[in-house]
Amino acid sequence: MNLNISYLMLILLSTSVFSQEQPIEKITVTASRASQKVLDVASNISWLDDESLRLIEQQHINQALVRIPGAWISRGNGQEHLTAIRSPVLTGTGGCGAFFIAQDGISLRAPGFCNVNQLFDANTEQASSLEVLRGPASTMYGSNAVHGVINVLTPNPFDTQQSSVSLSLGPHDYTRGMFSLSTTGEQHGFLLYGNVTKDAGYLQDSGYEQQKVNLIHQYQGGKWQIKNVLAVSNLKQETAGFISGFEVYKDASLKRQNPNPEAFRDSQSMRVYSQISYVENDTTSFTITPYIRSTDMQFLQHYLPWQPIEDNSHSSVGVQTQFQKYYGDLSWLSGFDVDYTQGQLTETQAEDFSPTLPAGIHYDYKVNATVYSPFAQLQWTATQQLILSAGVRYEHTKYDYDNRLSTGSACAQGIENCRFTRPEDQVVDYDEWSYQVNANYALTNNYRLYAQYSTGYRAPQATELFRLQAGQTVAELDAEDVNSIELGLRGKTDSLFYDVTLFSMQKDNFIFQDTDRQNISNGETSHRGIELVLSYHWQYFYASANGTFAKHQYDSNLTLSRINIKDNEIDTAPEHMGSAQLGWRTDSGSFIELEWVHQGNYYLDPENSAEYSGHNLLNLRTGWALNETLDIGVRVSNLTDEDYAERADFGFGSYRYFVGEFRSVYATVRYQY
After folding, report:
1. Where is the secretion signal located (predicted)?
2. CB under 8 Å, gap of 24 or more: what pairs does 390-394 form?
């Protein structure tokens, strides 16, 4: 692997994820679906706590997750985004569903009905924590936990002692109001919080309005704990598309243009669930979490020249159960997850583009999906220094597909090479196993060596199976599989925390669309690298940084292009990226922080013939506590007004870019009572 040595030295000299908490006392619930000290975790784990999220005061989720090693949330227009965790940025066929993205462990979208933008459904701005697992975690989370897990944890009302309101203002008519109302008694706590955002957009005709509201009731009495959660979100967005032309993002006369002023995205989501837990003498616990999930989205596919409109929705009911028992040096964790979903999709085109791309309804289908999945994990404290664990999961997925249009071509009779094909009604099912074996060895009380072998899988998504093209009538797709090995070293002193992880992943049955526009699943890719997390604090000063150095390659003779691309680097997969922060923060909450964000160069096509050179950004954040109830903050993004692309692409014979935001100043006033 060719690593950028100067970048590595800068990371090592700087130092990672900002948190006022002592990492040794940090408790995570995402790594094993149970409370566990970070130092005892036998795999990688990263997090951003509520203080970090409040300091960042994000306008987009990518501004927060640049502090997580191995992760890149590529910013699209408005609240759109694409995700990369130990992976390239995944788009198109095979790109959706590679990540398990959840709120309190419940997937934001149903298995088989993912959306690459689904993080905008969650209230990440006011979460109590964002926890990220890098690499496969299907033993704990099932299908889609192939490249990683992002878990948005909601607050505990009993830990939220104050109510608050805030108002943020910024350029291009940006306004955001946030509120939090809290009340608690001896056994019951209530928390209502949310935010309302309006942004006219830094490109032409690119604004959005978004609302998120969460209501939490929590009961704690004796052996019982109950957490009831309602989460709703609404997004109405005018979307800006790519601008085309080599490095056009540097052209002051063109970079604010929106070639797709007609583009839009409307999305609504709702989740209701209840986490009911019973604990007996700290040795036995049982949790049952029934839930209801609903989403509805309509958008213009502006990235396609013929610009169809897609309308997709699904509604789910499900339940997660979990039992944990301690037997001296042994602990047993087992559970059973069930999800039933009714989903539908339509795609329509207003005007004829060509005889093979006709106006009208291209697709109109329903899919009923059933997923059930038992899992178990055994952990053994072999010695005072060594903890071993092993887990297994079986998952059954069934899709019952109902085509509500004529079967076959969507074009007029006699038209060959029609773009759109409607399969006949069918039932498709998958049976998958995943495994996990890991170890955590205490070199001393504060230094741990950990190792893990894990597998992940992803059942094909409904759109990959049933929204076919170019005469393909059956998509005989296998589930994607990943095998992963990682080795890490984690430790701390009074002022220093570090975490270094080496990883190697092999992905089989990669789903993609070949040059004949057929959905197939015989691709192989490899993903290898090192992730660094370092942080140092001294009195009121801190330095933090994270870095990723990775190689993502095609490992098979794929027909993604007209030439053999085996051993080529996967497009939109930087070899190196990361961020560093230098700051000062007082006990009263006043702070100042300078942040550097680095994005390395990457190829834009499988042939490795087009490239983006990467960029470096500086951000400045500061805030003052005027008194115990009132504070103000100012955030300057892109301090040096760098010309850059949030994401570069090469499609339809042209370089294409999502333009990065220009230098912008945001101010926030917050009142607590």
Report:
1. 1-19
2. 390/435, 390/436, 390/437, 390/438, 391/139, 391/140, 391/333, 391/435, 391/436, 391/437, 392/139, 392/433, 392/434, 392/435, 392/436, 393/138, 393/139, 393/140, 393/142, 393/433, 393/434, 394/431, 394/432, 394/433
Q: Where are the domains of the chain?
A: 5-672
Report the alpha-carbon distance of residue 439 to residue 488 in Å, rounded.
10
Dihedral angle computed from the Cα positions of residues 373, 97, 44 and 533, in that order, rounded to the nearest 10 degrees: -160
Instruction: Name the residue among 555, 573, 586 with its Cα closest to residue 483.
Output: 555
The size of the chain, in residues, is 673
- Let me know: does 566 contact 558? Beta carbons within 8 Å: yes
DSSP state of 568: P
Q: Tokens for 306, please give them.
A: 């013929």
What mean pLDDT, rounded, does the chain reach?
A: 92
Q: Which helix (H) or strand (E) holds 216?
A: strand 208-221
More confident residue, 281 or 44: 44
**Per-residue pLDDT at 515 exceeds 70:** no
551-584 exposure pattern, b = at least 16 Cβ within 10 A, e = fewer: bbbbbeebbbeeeebeebbbbbbbbbbbbbbbbe
Q: How far apart are CA 216 and CA 12, in angstroms?
A: 42
The Cα 60–Cα 117 span in angstroms is 12
Token pair, residue 585, equals 């923060």
pTM for the structure as a whole: 0.94
Do 551 and 528 meet the contact criterion of CB atoms below 8 Å apart?
yes
Hey, what are 145's tokens? 């936990």
End-to-end CA, the chain: 54
Say if residues 217 and 230 touch (Cβ distance below 8 Å): no
In the β-sheet with 46-49, what is the strand arrangement from edge to edge? 46-49, 129-134, 148-153, 99-103, 106-107
HEC profile for 292-342?
A: EEEEEEEEECCCCCCCCEEEEEEEEEEEEEEEEEEECCEEEEEEEEEEEEE
Mean pLDDT value of segment 437-442: 97
Token pair of 557 as six digits: 């003779």
3-state secondary structure 272-294: EEEEEEEEECCCEEEEEEEEEEE
Fold of the CATH domain 5-672: Maltoporin; Chain A (2.40.170)
Q: Is 315 left (phi over 0), alpha (psi -120 to 50) or beta?
A: beta
Distance CA 232, CA 254 (A): 37
Q: How far apart are CA 480 and CA 95, in angstroms?
A: 11
Q: What are phi and psi of 12, to 5 degrees?
A: -65, -35
Rounded Cα distance, 561 and 358, in Å: 26
- SS in 3 state form for 144-207? CCCCEEEEEECCCHHHCCCCEEEEEEECCCEEEEEEEEEEECCCEEEEEEEEEEEECCCCCCCC
H or E stretch covering 666: strand 664-672
What's the CA gap between 280 and 31, in Å, rounded?
Answer: 23
Radius of gyration of the chain (CA): 24
Q: What confidence tier does 372 reach under pLDDT thresholds 50, 70, 90?
A: very high
The answer to whether the Cα torsion of 152, 158, 161, 163 is positive or negative is positive
User: Which strand (E) or helix (H) includes residue 606?
Assistant: none
Q: Please answer whether residues 178 and 163 qualify as being in contact, where contact means their C-beta atoms are separated by less than 8 angstroms.
A: no
Res 172: pLDDT: 95
Burial of 259 (0-12, 13-18, 19+ CB in 10 A): middle
- Per DSSP bridges, beta strands 174-184 and 164-170 are antiparallel
Note the Cα 368 to chain centre separation in Å: 25
